[in-house]
């Protein structure tokens, strides 16, 4: 069952987004807002159930690490989700603005887009790697060893960047409204990257 749980999470995430897409087109901000709690819960469960995290060195003096208990996993997952929803959202909001998001208009949709991206890309990384500075230097530098968390985060960011391509084409379609294509690209990139990272772990991205 454990081996299939990451795939179940990916399937639920993808099917939920597909189901909500018509609503996203008609009301981007409202849809991103009401789907946010469900995404937060889904990511928190995925982190606690599917990602293995080692606790700090045990007090036995052996220097070995022990696997974190259930309660520790739940608390860590909730804290990682909260961190992503606050600090991660702020960082990604600034990044979106620097990459061309409207700074004085569409503030709420941009914030909500950043919140969804933070739960997808940031929360699993924070849960798995905690505050390990050496690992975070590799993650932020794009040099970390590929696994589903890191590959999913890279996929979400690349997908959001690619998703910006249709916006300036000027076709005046409903699905081109900000930030529909951005968040769609982020979800697609995350699910693809996460699946590839799970299937081909231990690689390094050619960055």
TrEMBL record:
GO BP, sorted A to Z: GPI anchor biosynthetic process
GO-annotated cellular components: endoplasmic reticulum membrane
Membrane-crossing residue ranges in chain numbering: 75-101, 107-127
Known pathway: Glycolipid biosynthesis; glycosylphosphatidylinositol-anchor biosynthesis
Subcellular location: Endoplasmic reticulum membrane
A Pfam family recorded for this sequence: PIG-F
Keyword terms of this UniProt record: Endoplasmic reticulum, GPI-anchor biosynthesis, Membrane, Transmembrane, Transmembrane helix
Topological type in the membrane: Multi-pass membrane protein
Protein name: PIG-F-domain-containing protein
Lineage summary: Eukaryota, Fungi, Dikarya, Ascomycota, Pezizomycotina
């Amino acid at each position: 069952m454990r081996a299939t749980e990451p795939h179940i999470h990916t399937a639920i995430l993808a099917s939920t987004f597909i189901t909500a897409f018509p609503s996203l087109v008609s009301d981007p901000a409202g849809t991103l807002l009401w789907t946010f709690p469900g995404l937060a819960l889904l990511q928190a469960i995925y982190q606690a159930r599917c990602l293995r995290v080692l606790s700090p060195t045990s007090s036995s003096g052996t220097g070995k690490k022990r696997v974190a208990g259930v309660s520790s996993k739940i608390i860590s997952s909730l804290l990682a989700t909260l961190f992503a929803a606050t600090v991660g959202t702020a960082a990604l909001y600034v990044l979106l603005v620097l990459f061309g998001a409207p700074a004085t208009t569409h503030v709420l949709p941009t914030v909500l887009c950043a919140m969804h991206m933070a739960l997808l890309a940031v929360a699993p990384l924070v849960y798995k790697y905690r505050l390990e500075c050496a690992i975070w230097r590799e993650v932020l530098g794009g040099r970390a060893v590929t696994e589903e968390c890191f590959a999913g985060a890279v996929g979400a960011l690349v997908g959001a960047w690619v998703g910006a391509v249709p916006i300036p084409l000027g076709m005046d379609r409903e699905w081109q409204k900000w930030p529909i294509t951005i968040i769609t690209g982020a979800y697609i990139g995350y699910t693809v990257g996460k699946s590839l990272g799970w299937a081909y772990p231990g690689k390094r991205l050619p960055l």
